[in-house]
Amino acid sequence: MTQALINDTLISGSPEWLAAKRQESLKLFNDLNTPTENVEAWKYTQVDVDFGALRPHGKRDRVSGVEALPERVQKRLRSTDVGGYLVFDGPDVVYSTDLPADVAAKGVIFTDLKTAVEQHADKVQQYLYSVVPAEVPDDTTIAAPGTTPSKSPDPSEGKFSALNAALWTNGAFVYVPRGVEVELPLGSFRVMSEAGTYTATRTLVVAEENAQVTFIDEQDSDELPGTYAFGAVELVVKAGARVRYVSVQNWGKGVTHIQRQRGDVDRDATLNSLVVTMGGTLSRTEMQSYLRGQGSDSEMLALYFANEDQHFDHYTLQHHAAPHAHSDLLYKGVGDNQAVGVFSGMIKVDLGAQKTDAYQKHRTLMLSSEARNFSVPQLEINANDVRCSHGSTTGPVNAEQLFFLRSRGISKEQAEKMLVTAFLEDVLSRVPLKSVVKYIEGIIAEKVGAN
């Protein structure tokens, strides 16, 4: 990655504070090594990137109407009920809908991040990089959003965060003032249309005290060999606030997807997250909740279906830094053909975080003897009055259930489809967004039908 690239494409158009941050992040990126199998957090996933050859996705112009968008985007916009939507093609917004007037009148801001830097600089500068910094700080020294964290670079995780911090071009920005509840979800639909390129996007969602909002983040594309999507998601959940974040990754074959999502959850606040991974050839998703405040709550759900030669890696952290906090993680996946699934999850309880209540469960259904799965659930407990549990199971389709269905005249293929759908359903049953659940069920049906 050359200094000229970031100077020419980003720094010249950035305000001074952002330009400085990009420069700092680029330097860190160049100083850090790409993670290898010798790094525990990346033991089962190797990302082969020629950073010097990375080529940014080409510019795209806005379209005049929804009918000019790709058919799959049109279908999603017609089938979902949202209060506002951004559609990105590569780095650019090509279509958007406005917030309802009554919502905007309450001070809610929903726009692309590039525009937010220009029009809402005070809010963006206060929170940008506060939850997902260029490097991952020592978890005991994370500062409150809006302040400067005391950072300690971690070479095992910082390379791609630094890359995104330096090179992000756009993304979504959501700001909900104190006490405001946004009833309809807000969302973005990101597509890529140029093979052999990369995009770097960043999402920033801020819910002030006692605010509520739901954000849906979808990614989709056709087959795009040699293409990379680098993402970062920052979720600021202030005291008493409630944020629901949904990520649906359905990139086409040939895409490498690397994204870190981190939520900072304050006193009596709640963060509900759902990560759905279905597409791309290699996907590495990190979902982390930092339970900063007493009485905070985090629900972390995920489902994935890897087939053919797909490699899906999920890395999670439930970090309890305050007493009387609760977290619940349920990740369920399916592996078929020669696919590889990786799950590494940590429950970390700090000294003084008494009365922690934390759960972690990961289950994988294997449809092929050639598929592989690596599961590493972990606990790090530094308090003596807690309730924490973790567990992981990996196994084939239940033979008795399969026999029961086949004895009633159902084919083996159809019986397996039914069992896979039922296996994943208990995750979806916990998501109160009917249009999103229906969309995900359609993707699952396509994946199962391909077997």
UniProtKB/TrEMBL annotation:
The SUF system FeS cluster assembly SufBD core domain, residue ranges: 193-423
Record GO biological process: iron-sulfur cluster assembly
Boundaries of every SUF system FeS cluster assembly SufBD N-terminal domain copy: 9-186
Alphabetical list of InterPro entries matching this protein: Fe-S_cluster_assembly_SufBD, SUF_FeS_clus_asmbl_SufBD_core, SUF_FeS_clus_asmbl_SufBD_sf, SUF_FeS_clus_asmbl_SufD, SufBD_N
Organism superkingdom: Bacteria
SUPFAM superfamilies: Stabilizer of iron transporter SufD
Similarity section: Belongs to the iron-sulfur cluster assembly SufBD family.
Protein name: FeS assembly protein SufD
Lineage: Bacteria, Thermotogati, Deinococcota, Deinococci, Deinococcales
